[in-house]
Amino acid sequence: MQVILLRFWQSTIGKKVVMAVTGIIGILFVIGHMLGNLTMFKGQEAMYDYAMLLRTSMPLLWAARIGLIAAVVLHALAAYQLTMMSRAARPTAYAERRPQVTTFAARTIRWGGVLLLVFLVFHLLQLTVGVLHPDFTHLDPYNNVRIGLANPLVAGFYVLAMAALGLHLYHGTWAVVRTLGIARPSTQPLKRRLALAIACIVVAGFTVIPIAALLGKFAPAPKLVDASAATALATPAVETR
Ligand code: HEM
User: Fold this and answer.
1) Ligand 1 centroid vs 239 CA: distance in angstroms?
2) 142 CA → ligand 1 middle, Å
3) Which ligand 1 atom is at minimum distance from the Cα of 29?
4) 209 lines ligand 1 (CB under 6 A)
């Protein structure tokens, strides 16, 4: 079994299948995360509920986190190794190269992927760990996003990363279908309506957040010091003398 898995991983098609499967995990994650983040527009309580929903079961959350990390590592490793294999197969570049079918998204997929990795590390350090945040509060994602993304440099970086994500999704969603043979090769390979729709929806859904934060559209809210403060937010405190 181990030998079969190793042979599969060492083959070009094996790596492509690994990229496709881990890519699907990534696509599903970003769609879910984008929908969850849109609760920013509902306010602090809704955003807190979203954070708590993710923490319904800590073992499950950690299983999902480890699964996601493994998917990202395998995806990036397979991409790197495929690039190296392709370079080794043709050490001298073509004098002239005119691909029959290509897009800007396909040509920028590798550098876009590197940018997304850099974004992901920054993003986790900023909004999950909180070390790259000027005023981070554990379990207060509303204020963390509102304050963290109001910085023009940070908001600009988010918008740039979301553009890279859109291009990556546009090419990647189409490539998944090709690699796994889910649909027959089209006679119009540049007509990719599903890939375009997914990319546009995800980019729009994510990008409105840094823009709204930059424009100060999220109303200031008191910090949630801990979970009990969140309960107090849901049930307004009765003043006692
Ligand atoms: C405007 C864009 C985004 C916003 C506002 C945002 C917001 C957040 C917030 C608030 C958290 C912390 C959640 C919590 O601890 O409860 C988080 C975690 C995370 N985000 Fe994002 N995010 C954005 C884009 C992205 C993108 C594009 C990706 C992937 C490419 C991503 C991947 C992650 C991951 C992997 C986590 C860690 C989840 C965990 O701790 O279990 N985010 N994000």
Assistant:
1) 37
2) 12
3) 29
4) yes
Task: Say which residues have a Cβ less than 8 Å from residue 234's Cβ, sequence separation at least 6.
Answer: 45
**SS percent in the chain: helix, strand, coil, step 5:** 75, 0, 25
Alpha helices (H) in 181-224, listed in sequence order: 193-214
Residue whose Cα lies nearest atom 7 of ligand 1: it is 37
* pLDDT score for 238: 45
Pocket of ligand 1 contains residue 28 by CB under 6 Å? no
Helix (H) / strand (E) element for 227: namely helix 227-234
Pairwise CA distance, residues 76 & 22, whole Å? 10
65 C-alpha vs ligand 1 centroid, how far in Å?
Answer: 12
* Among the listed residues 105, 100, 107, the one whose alpha carbon sits nearest the alpha carbon of residue 185: 100
Query: 138 in ligand 1 pocket by Cβ < 6 Å?
Result: no
Angle subtended at Cα 158 by Cα 196 and Cα 221, rounded to the nearest 5 degrees: 115
DSSP 8-state assignment for residue 15: H
Spatial CA neighbour of 128 closest among 114, 151, 145, 116? 145
Start-end of H helices in 11-108: 12-37, 44-54, 58-89, 104-107
pLDDT digits (tens, 9 = 90+) for 99-148: 766 788 888 899 999 999 999 999 999 999 999 999 999 999 999 999 99
Asked if residue 141 has its Cβ within 6 Å of ligand 1, the reply is: yes
